[in-house]
Design brief:
It is built from two helices and 36 strands. By secondary structure, the protein is mainly β. The strands form ten sheets. Strands 30, 31, 33, 34, 35 and 36 form a six-stranded antiparallel beta sheet that branches. Among the domains are: 87 residues, Immunoglobulins (Immunoglobulin-like); 85 residues, Sandwich (Immunoglobulin-like), CATH 2.60.40; 113 residues, Immunoglobulins (Immunoglobulin-like, Sandwich), CATH 2.60.40.
Length: 495
C-alpha cells in the first residue's frame, strides 16, 4: 500500500485472497498492488488500484485568534481544519464568560466573526467546532481573552443637596450649590476626575462624589450635567438636572425713632403696610449696645416697631438691626444712635386759696424738687368770671403768691404748673396744669367751691372741695346706692 505521502508499506502477507487494512485516514486515496510467492520466488506486481476511503468528520480546529478592534469590538478568526474527505459545511463558535456559560453565538461558513456589546475589561472564553456531511469534528482548545478598558459609564444619579454641610459654603449660600453623585462603573480604568457642565462654563474636579459650586448668581436656575474621566477618556454626560440658587439674605432696613420719651424710645423700621414684607415672613433682630460696647438682642420677631423702656432720661443709646428670611440671616445695619428726652415736671395738685385781709388772697401749691440739677419754676394762671382763657399772673421759683384788688361776687379759678428750666439747652419744659381751685370773694369771707360754683350758706367753710374731690364724692355715692339696692333685691328674692 502506498500512502498519500508516497510511503509504501506491506500491509498483508499470507495465503488468503483478501485482507482488511485498518487505521486509514477518511476520504484519502490509497494505492494498492499485490504479488504472489511460490517455491520459485516472487512474481511481478499487479497493476496499481487506487481506492478512496469514505469521508469522516472534520479534524480538530486550531485555537481561534482573538483581536480587539478600535471601536471596542472583538474579532474572532480561525483556520479551516482537515476536512476528512468532505467539504466543511459549517463552523460553530461558542462564547461565554467561563466554560460553564458557553453559548453558541455564531454558525456558518465564514472563518471570522465580530462580537459587539461586550463588557469592557471583562474576562471571556471561546471554542470552535467544524461540521461536514459526515458529522462534527472535535472542539478546539478553549481560548481565554480579556476585553480592553474603556471610558467610564454615564453617571445615573446626580442631585443637589438641600441641607448642606455647615462648611459647604464659606461665602454666601446664595452663590453656592452642593452637587452630589454616585460613582459610575470605571470600565477597567480608575476614574481620575469629573467634568461638570453648566452650559456656559465647565469645571473639572478630582475623584470625588461631592462638589460645591461657588460664585454663582443668586436666585438663578442652572442646567447641570456631569461626566466621568479615566485614562481611556471621558464617558458620556449624564442627564441634565435643574437647580436654583437661593435668594440673597435680606438687607437690613433703615432704623428710625418714631417717638422719644424720658424713659423710652419707640423705634420703627421698614414698611409695615408693604405686601412684600408680609409675603416674605421677615424676622427682625434688634440689638442694643450696652455699657461694655457689646450688642445684646432686645427683640426678635416680625413686628416693624418696638418700644424700648426703662431708659435714662436725656441719654444716647446705640442700636443696630438685622433682617432674616428663608434665604438666611442678612448683615447687621450700621449703628443708629437715638437720645431720650428730658422729663417734664409732674402734675401738681390743685392749689389752696386762703382769704387775706382786704380784697386779696394767697395761693399756695406743692413744690417739686430740682430735676437732675435743673431748677423748677412755677406758672400760676387765673380765670376770671366768664372769660374763656386763663391769664398768667405769676412765674417764679416761689410756691406761694398773693393777689390783691379782687372783686366781690366774682368767680376766680386758679391753676398752677411746674416748669423745668434746662441749664444746658436753655429750654423750658412745662408740666401739665393742676386741677383748678375755685374762689369767690365776698364781703366778709372767701370760700372755695367745686366745679359747680354754687354756695347755699355763706356761713359754711370757706374752703370747698376741688373738682376732683367733688367727682370722687359723686362716684362714692353711686357705689353706695348700688350696694344698697343689691342687698334689697337679694332680700326680696330670698323671700
Amino acid at each position: 500500500m502506498t500512502e498519500p505521502e508516497d510511503v509504501a508499506s506491506e500491509v498483508y502477507h499470507g495465503p488468503e485472497l483478501e485482507c482488511t487494512v485498518g487505521n486509514l485516514l477518511p476520504g484519502t486515496v490509497y494505492r494498492f498492488r499485490v504479488r504472489a510467492l511460490n517455491d520459485g520466488g516472487y512474481g511481478p506486481y499487479s497493476d496499481v488500484s487506487e481506492i478512496t476511503t469514505a469521508a469522516g468528520p472534520p479534524g480538530q480546529c486550531k485555537a481561534p485568534c482573538i483581536s480587539c478592534t478600535p471601536d471596542g469590538c472583538v474579532l474572532v478568526s480561525w483556520e479551516s481544519p482537515d476536512s476528512s474527505g468532505a467539504d466543511i459545511s459549517e463552523y460553530r463558535l461558542e462564547w461565554g464568560e467561563d466554560e460553564e456559560s458557553l453559548e453558541l453565538i455564531y454558525h456558518g461558513t465564514d472563518t471570522r466573526f465580530e462580537i459587539r456589546d461586550l463588557l469592557p475589561a471583562a474576562q471571556y472564553c471561546c471554542r470552535l467546532q467544524a461540521f461536514n456531511q459526515a458529522g462534527a469534528g472535535p472542539y478546539s482548545e478553549l481560548v481565554l481573552c480579556q476585553t480592553p478598558a474603556s471610558a467610564p459609564d454615564p453617571i445615573s444619579t446626580l442631585c443637589v443637596l438641600e441641607e448642606e454641610p455647615l462648611d459647604a459654603y464659606p461665602d454666601s449660600p446664595s452663590a453656592c450649590l452642593v452637587l452630589n453623585w454616585e460613582e459610575p462603573c470605571n470600565n477597567g480604568s480608575e476614574i481620575l476626575g469629573y467634568n461638570i457642565d453648566l452650559g456656559d462654563t465647565s469645571i473639572t474636579v478630582g475623584n470625588t462624589t461631592m462638589h460645591v459650586m461657588k460664585d454663582l448668581l443668586p436666585e438663578t436656575t442652572y442646567r447641570i450635567r456631569i461626566q466621568a474621566i479615566n485614562e481611556i477618556g471621558a464617558g458620556p454626560f449624564s442627564q441634565f438636572i435643574k437647580a436654583k440658587t437661593r435668594p440673597l439674605p435680606p438687607l437690613p432696613p433703615r432704623l428710625e425713632c418714631a417717638a422719644a420719651g424720658p424713659q423710652s424710645l419707640k423705634l420703627k423700621w421698614g414698611d409695615s403696610n408693604s405686601k412684600t414684607h408680609a409675603a416674605d415672613d421677615m424676622v427682625y433682630t434688634l440689638q442694643l449696645e450696652d455699657r461694655n460696647k457689646r450688642f445684646i438682642s432686645i427683640y426678635r420677631g416680625p413686628s416693624h416697631t418696638y418700644k424700648v423702656q426703662r431708659l435714662t432720661e436725656f441719654t444716647c443709646y446705640s442700636f443696630r438691626i438685622q433682617a432674616a428670611s428663608e434665604a438666611g440671616e442678612g448683615p447687621f445695619s450700621e449703628t443708629y444712635t437715638f437720645s431720650t428726652i428730658k422729663s417734664v415736671p409732674p402734675t401738681i395738685k390743685a392749689p389752696r386759696v386762703t382769704q387775706l385781709e382786704g380784697n386779696s388772697c394767697e395761693i399756695l401749691w406743692e413744690t417739686v424738687p430740682p430735676m437732675k440739677g435743673d431748677p423748677v419754676n412755677y406758672i400760676l394762671q387765673v380765670l376770671v368770671g366768664r372769660e374763656s382763657e386763663y391769664k398768667q399772673v405769676y412765674k417764679g421759683e416761689e410756691a406761694t403768691f398773693q393777689i390783691s384788688g379782687l372783686q366781690t361776687n366774682t368767680d376766680y379759678r386758679f391753676r398752677v404748673c411746674a416748669c423745668r428750666r434746662c441749664l444746658d439747652t436753655s429750654q423750658e419744659l412745662s408740666g401739665a396744669f393742676s386741677p383748678s381751685a375755685a374762689f369767690v370773694l365776698q364781703r366778709s369771707e372767701v370760700m372755695l367751691t367745686g366745679d359747680m360754683g354754687s354756695l347755699d350758706d355763706p356761713k359754711m367753710k370757706s374752703m370747698m372741695p376741688t373738682d376732683e374731690q367733688f367727682a370722687a364724692i359723686i362716684v362714692l355715692g353711686f357705689a353706695t346706692l348700688s350696694i344698697l339696692f343689691a342687698f334689697i333685691l337679694q332680700y326680696f328674692l330670698m323671700k
